[in-house]
Amino acid sequence: MTAWIKVARYHMADPIAYLVGPWAILAFAFLINLVITKAQGGPNPTKALAVVYVCFFGLGILSTGRSLPFGLALGATRRSYYTGTALLAAALAAADGLGLALLQLAERATHGWGVALHFFEVSHILAGPWYVTWLTSFVGLTLLFVYGIWYGIIYRRWHRLGLVAFIVGQVAVIRVWIVVVDRGHNWGGAGFSFTPSAMRITAMFGALAAVLLIGGFALMRRVTV
Amino acid sequence: MTPTISVSGLTRRYHSQLALDDVTLHINGPSITGLLGRNGAGKTTLMRIIAAQEFASGGSVRVLGSSPVENGAVLRRMVLVREDQTLPRLRVGHLLRAASWFYPNWSSGLAKGLVADFNVPLNRNTRGLSRGMRTALGIVIGLAARAEVTLFDEPYAGLDAVARQLFYDRMLRDFADHPRTILISTHLIDEAADLLERVLVIDRGRLVLDEAADDLRGAATTVSGTVDAVEKFAAGRAAWARRTIGSQASMVVSGVLDDDDRALARLLHVSLTPLSLQQLVAHVPGWSNSDPKENQSA
Q: Which of B166, B187, B215 is the last residue of a domain?
């Protein structure tokens, strides 16, 4: 068994958090939206699917913020720990993304579960053929997981102060970027159009995920526990 | 022969604070070595660097002949059990199962026996463990891993005297069957004294003593009696930690005493009390300055 597989298995030693958790929360959100849509009696293009992405972000934080010290105590290297965790993220994102794509197919086939609920179909983002939905979901879930890993690593390296600086830094960068792009009236050039396509968003998310993955590896190399 | 643990000129600096200052030590082959020192002396930092959980500012560390940093071949032959270990939120049984995947010499039978001995609740989440249970869990992992290099950093936190004795017994028994290099840091020096083959003492980041435990037993003696008698007895001997109350004095003299010394003590009516390892370690910073004349102060 390679070190990467051992690390992935270590995370999955108790599979509830990684396998059951996101789907349990998703099922809960789905049922609430189903009841609301039925009560309203009209189309409900909800964005509640976001909960599964939030779950992946949380799992990313958990995988490093909480589990890393013991993983290193068990003799894993930082490199193998990071690689094993990232591979687990990709595998979970692929499996759960496929599940979301299949549920979207079922939603379309049943005309919104019989009540015009658009839970698994999100306009402009998850609205194409099933394989595009799978790809977008895979990239989006991986991105959120890896983003969560960053929070865990930063917490381990620089503790709470580092986390606060990281969050403040992101807000500042985004704020400056918005001001610069807005003054130049160049939202299209910045990668946004007002009718974004799923593939374009997927490509942007993919590029961001790749940057975070590579950057996370560099961050991880000097982490101490 | 390649030392199991070889530390040369190791330094660790945190901003203006020097946690480890030019530490050099070598541990060869299977043994149980005690790493002793006061709180904040640098024991945990040293162990973390040996286990590649922390980075050195200077110097080098080699374990089983290689640097342990990002070296999976070395790290899977080493285990560090820490008092302050952060545990993932798993059930204890799952945690032990995960640990078994990482260590090639893991003994499920030993783990099972230790779990029963220490009453470790397998179905409880690590969040719900008491301090003593967390410590016991660390002991189970540290011993059952049967790693060639086993590092225990204050492994007794929260354990009562009975459980501590159980730990000593189980460790010695397993060490006899499966010899390995065990480095154990502790405050309970006298309690662990009989286990130790070698003693390392760290004080303010510096290694101030590195001796075989047998050489230390009887290596210093407290001499008590009248001031004159104590002074006469201590004349010409390396001595320190002198205390005087009225006409009575006590002084610690180093060196093994022989029959002539005991006869002299009887003649002078002074009492001789060998220092325990713990007392000895308490005096080590003064002792290690080696010029006994400079240390003859209260």
A: B215
DSSP label at residue B38: -
Q: Each residue of A166-224: pLDDT tens digit?
A: 999 999 999 998 888 888 776 666 656 556 678 888 999 999 999 999 999 999 998 99
Neighboring chain A residues of B48 at a CB cutoff of 8 Å: 224-225
Q: Could you tell me the residue range of the domain that residue A168 belongs to?
A: 3-220
Where does residue B116 rank: exposed (0-12), middle (13-18), buried (19+ CB within 10 A)?
A: exposed
What is d(CA A27, CA A18) in angstroms, rounded to the nearest whole number? 15
Q: Work out the percent of chain A whose per-residue pLDDT is above 70.
A: 95
Please, are residues A16 and A101 in contact by the beta-carbon 8 Å criterion? no
Residue A120 distance to chain B (closest CA, Å): 31
Closest CA to A150 of A83, A77, A64, A54: A64
Structure tokens at B173: 């028994």
B19 and B76 in a common domain: yes
ipTM: 0.83
CATH code, domain carrying B276 = 3.30.70
- Domains in chain A, number: 1
Query: Is the CB of A224 less than 8 angstroms away from the CB of B54?
Result: yes
B75 vs A76: CB contact, 8 Å cut-off? yes
Query: What is the distance between the alpha carbons of residues B135 and B158, in angstroms, rounded to a whole number?
Result: 7
- Supply the range of the domain harboring residue B26: 5-215
Q: Who among B80, B94, B101 is closest to A73 (CB)?
A: B80
Residue A29: DSSP 8-state: H
Beta-strand pair B5-14/B17-27: antiparallel
CA separation for the pair B227, B251 (Å, rounded): 10
What was the pLDDT predicted at B37? 87
Asked if A115 and A37 count as a contact pair (C-beta separation under 8 A), the reply is yes
Please give the tally of structural domains in chain B: 2
Reported as a single tens digit per residue, the pLDDT across B244-273 is 999 999 999 988 888 999 999 999 999 999
Tokens linked to A96: 């759960």
DSSP state of A14: S
Rounded to an integer, what distance in angstroms lies between the CA atom of residue B286 and that of residue B290? 8
What's the pLDDT score for residue B290?
45
pTM of the model: 0.86
CA-CA distance, B24 to B208, in Å (whole number)?
Answer: 10
Rounded to 5 degrees, φ, ψ at B208 are -105, -10
